[in-house]
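Annex B. Sample input.
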Amino acid sequence: MKKPFVSLEQIQEIKKTYPTPFHIYDEKGIRENARAVNRAFSWNKGFREYFAVKATPTPGILQILKEEGCGADCSSYTELQIAEAVGITGHQIMFSSNVTPAEDFALAAKLGAIINFDDITHIPFFEKIAPIPETVCCRYNPGGVFQVSNEIMDNPGDAKYGMTKEQMKEAFRMLKEKGAKHFGIHSFLASSTSSNVYYPMLSKILFELAVELKNELDIHIAFINLSGGVGIPYHPDEEGCDIMAIGEGVRKVYEEVLSPAGMDDVAIFTEMGRYMLAPYGALVAEAIHEKHIYKEYIGLDACAANLMRPAMYGAYHHITVLGK
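Annex B, continued. Sample output.
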């Protein structure tokens, strides 16, 4: 059973100031969850969670996460502005974008964000806007189908994101010639997984790639960004992921692959959105009509404009009737 973080009495009191519909967030839950994520990866001294701003582009939320040590994963001009507004700048911002307008790159460069190049052609495009920074990142797409045991998690080969391995090598060579000194690898292979082995499996792919790139190109791999993909239970009978087990799984692969290669200084980054916030937010609406025809209908004072995901993705969002 899903237990709401707010009671009917609390909502009735809040409604006196803020009429429905409104979104409400559980600050205590957000902070405790952020601390659990940091604990799970505390074995890695450079670890940082870059909250996916697109998931909830709300300055108040970003401020809370900033206080808990999180950075901002931005993909657009507006998201960069929101990060800057709450004082998140420099390497606290990871800028990952595709088909990127020049003005977005210009603002990211001005803020000193880590630029994550989605495509090799973005490098000469960026150079016309700003100098190549000393710390850069490129996004990897291994292609094919990504699966855990017999379950297909996603199909990276069909995704528009990232570069092939050969393009990664060429991009890093190009960036090194242009003055880059510290390199990052980023990849996103599956969305909203319910498995504790997704991050460890992705880690193995990226860690092995990191060792190959370091040895072949004689470069310093500074960080590996596992991006998002850790899901949450939407239905009351579903089990959630165990972030401590996930962190431990990544640690084991790190010690198997990176440590023997003398790469103990590689920082681990994550870019979670829904895992960081989805269980700690709710849309509060009031039932204002009942209609009895061939089906039973309850009419709310909220609509798709207040919660777009079910209309766009056929997503399930659990409804709780407070006080019932």
